[in-house]
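Appendix B, record 7
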Amino acid sequence: MKQLIECVPNFSEGRDPAVIKQITDVIEAVEGVKLLDVDPGAATNRTVVTFVGEPAAVVEAAFQAIRKACEVIDMSKHTGEHPRMGATDVCPLIPIANISMEETAEWARRLGERVGRELDLPIYLYEAAASRPERQNLAVIRAGEYEGLPEKLANPEWKPDFGPAKFNAKSGATVIGARDFLIAYNVNLNTTSVRRANSVAFDVRENGRVLNDPATGKPMKDASGEPIRQPGTLKGVKAIGWYIEEYGIAQVSMNITDVRATPLHLAFEECRQSADRRGMRVTGSELVGLVPLGVMLEAGKFFLRKQQRSVGVSEAELLKIAVKSMGLDELAPFDPQQKIIEYNLEKGDGANANKLVKMDLVAFANETASESPAPGGGSISAYVGALGASLATMVANLSSHKRGWDERWEEFSDAAERGQKIKDALLRTVDEDTDAFKLIMAAFGLPNTTPEEKTARKVAIQAGTRIAIEVPFKVMKLAFDSLPLIKQMVETGNPNSVTDAGVGALCARAAVRGAYMNIQVNTGGLNDKEFAAQVLSEGQQMAEQADKMEQEILEIVAGRI
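Structure tokens (predicted):
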């Protein structure tokens, strides 16, 4: 499987679009790399760029970007709110798919060695690529910033990992490393006071604040002479307060380095509570760069639960709740297609644009009715199953909000969430079934002259046929799994919607039976008779149980009408 890494270099230029474009142009010129995001900041005079691809291509693009930054950025003239030490201040590599952190760190070292050697630039390694423990922390390496580099480079303890130990006045120094996914996140306050913003930052960041002696006002120290600190409330969070002239407000600027320990919504809530205690108000927030979809969905669920509302709503609704709850659109519109990694990767994908599930209802029906053999019964079975699960989910959501049933909201929220998962999985199989059919047709169209060609064609046909069995079997299982949920809604859900759940049962049973017919017709052409017999046997049992459950549900519906 393809290995993917992400690179998020931070360049010390956020005000001149022409300079920024020269850097992003060289990134986009590297084949195999996709530029996901360019996020400039005028006040910080810094641009965060995000791109992704296979390791060799990403490292090549990163090198070209660092080289271009050395050409077009002059650090001797740079000013900005954010700490920085070079034209390319920091360049992290992040494992995304099918690659370990250790492998990613090795790619970071290769990049660092090449930059130091070819560009004559001091390079420090950090996080997972660090050459020594004391250099793992970016803040420690960057202490003193660009202005402190001459003194730092003269100190043997701060000899660069790669490149010369001499001050490069134009380009400064660069920090390269490998790390887990980091979320750069700023929380907006209704104040212009950096001191008050810092007080919130010290409350929440893991490193907390240094305690002062009440009598002398000087920092307290332990027996070994180290400052005594009061830890903050959030694990894996670094934070400072600053004033952003562009917006006329102070912000708490955070790097969330462990999103499992501190999810985005928790960082927002802790800042809100700290600000409240100090007489301030959080007015919104902003994401710098991109964020994984799951982080936003969990935030949406968190804020719905606070309202005692069902979390079993669509992905789009969860995103809307998350954006509005955290005020992510206060300073600029929040575009999910731009800011969410998974959506951004899909953007501009022609294959994705042609998917059946992206069509409107009329287009889908017209495509089905056309002379093309696909989509056919398999895709329609999957879609009908998705509609059945959707109806059950609708009844669960209506029940969770029913007047007088407030104490049962969690019961129905859990049910709705199960329904959403089944619905989403079935929607994915709508296109999977058509893709499987196209795979078989492509296999039949392969050359069939030489013995080698005949063998390759037979192997491809068998592989495609197996997939054309596995997909409808998945549809069967998913649709069958929706029937207990549908029955639960008929028995315990909002009585005004009992017939809606009944229609869901009809859809679910049709999906099971329709998918089973696809299995029956495709197993005849499979050479693996043992696999075929097993799937047919399990499928027959599932179809018979679905018939029985549908009848039970319809009898309950009839009794409640």
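Remarks on this record: The chain has 18 helices and 13 strands. The mean pLDDT is 94.
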